[in-house]
Design a protein that fits this description.
It contains 8 helices and 5 strands. By secondary structure, it is an alpha/beta fold. The chain has 2 domains: 127 residues, Response regulator (Rossmann fold); 45 residues, no CATH class. Strands 2-1-3-4-5 form a 5-stranded parallel β-sheet, with helices on both faces. The termini are far apart.
């Protein structure tokens, strides 16, 4: 099983180091970014399983990062935990409205951080499995829909024919193999009775 990848985004190197020292011994792979712009570049290159994000940073704050992540279909399901010293209720509510999945105050308790990280990574794993199953079901539905209901062959112009002739050819060989011999015979050859 591959290690879960966690991105820690904070403009303070000491804070990033502290989180790394907590999570590394638990078997997580930790990568770092020092501001929001760097975080988005890292995420584009190597999407993490979880983001631990500071709120107040230069160049791009945590709200802007969350907004960018949650508005992109490729990254919207990545859980984000806001780790910040901003302990006002209004900031917490605003973060949740932007799409933050959890909110922890600094200084955090190590047990609370690890419990929330573990919980969100499990949720991410289940979500990824559901997305995979959904794609498989959509693929099966596409194949079923594209079959001609009378002949059992793939209808021309369907999504399956557009997705690749090699796959279509393989599929057509499968469904028109030996069991479809009757279609190629004349009426007299098919019937054991004289006509």
């Amino acid at each position: 099983m591959k290690k879960s990848l966690i991105l820690v985004v904070d403009d303070e190197a000491a804070n990033r180091g502290l989180v790394r020292r907590v999570l590394d011994p638990l078997g997580y792979e930790v990568i770092e970014a020092s501001d929001g712009e760097e975080a988005l570049a890292v995420i584009a290159a190597q999407p993490p399983d979880l983001v631990l994000l500071d709120l107040v940073m230069p160049r791009m704050d945590g709200y802007a990062v969350v907004q960018a992540l949650k508005s992109d279909p490729k990254t919207r399901l990545i859980p984000v935990v806001m780790l910040t010293s901003q302990d006002q209720l209004s900031e917490k509510i605003r973060a949740v409205q932007y799409g933050v999945d959890d909110y922890l105050y600094k200084p955090f308790h190590v047990v609370e951080l690890t419990a929330r990280v573990h919980s969100l990574l499990n949720l991410k794993r289940y979500t990824d499995e559901l997305v995979h199953v959904s794609r498989v079901i959509e693929g099966i539905a596409e194949v079923v829909e594209s079959r001609d209901r009378y002949t059992g062959t793939i209808a021309s112009g369907s999504a399956c024919t557009r997705s690749g002739s090699a796959a279509r050819s393989s599929w057509e060989k499968t469904i028109s193999g030996p069991c479809n011999w009757a279609a190629s015979c004349t009426t007299s050859e098919r019937s054991p009775f004289p006509t």
